[in-house]
Amino acid sequence: MSNVAIDPALQLAVRSCLALLLTAAARHKLGDLARFRSTIENYRVVPPSVAALISHTLPALEVVLAMTIASGMFPVASGAAAAVLFTVYALAIAVNVRRGRSDLDCGCMGPASAVPVSSALVVRNVFLVVAAGLLTIPVSARELTLMDDVAIAAFTAALAACWAASERMLALAPRVALARRKTHSGAAHERSRFADIRSRFAPARPS
């Protein structure tokens, strides 16, 4: 029998973060189901008829998981289900990254937050799989203290801020890369132009 156990403060912090994430994801998707369905179809991993079904059931599943995880009921089952869900997300994104479709919106947080698929998103979902997997580990017998509550609240707020910042950075990454390419292209053009002008006015070499 395994003696591995997770500290209750850590488990509660993970539960809080995952519940918050799943709630936000479901809310954004429900804000525009038609566009979310289009996003799923654009992944080209399921037929359109299945995409229509997923577009309606996935937000509902995220809501149910968020509520179950937040309540602490069935932690093993909810943690395992969330891990499977995040694994499916990671695989769908990885397939399209492999196809070179860097302009595809991941649909992670719904139509309101357009973030193109990338290897970074695959890694992020793997991190979520690990986090969800922590909920399947038994909790050690320890009473939570006031300091635990403060630490959990601070941890959740800090992670939410980091997540929002990463979402913004991932959304802006293609624009930044495009701006850099334009800058480098413009600089190369100016160097070529300067070299051409200098060659015109350079004194002719004596024969």
- Distance linking N and C termini: 93 Å
Number of strands: 0
Helix tally?
6
Number of domains: 1
Give the overall average pLDDT.
84
Structure write-up:
- With 207 residues, the protein is mainly α.
- The protein has helices at residues 8-30, 33-43, 48-71, 75-98, 119-134, 146-201.
- It has one domain (8-172).
- 74% of the residues lie in helices and 0% in strands.
- The protein is globular, with a radius of gyration of 24 Å.
- 24% of the residues are buried.
- The mean pLDDT is 84.
Write the layout of secondary structure elements.
Elements: H1 8-30, H2 33-43, H3 48-71, H4 75-98, H5 119-134, H6 146-201
Helix pairs in contact: 1-3, 1-5, 1-6, 2-3, 4-5
Quick overview of this protein structure:
Helices cover 74% and strands 0% of the residues.
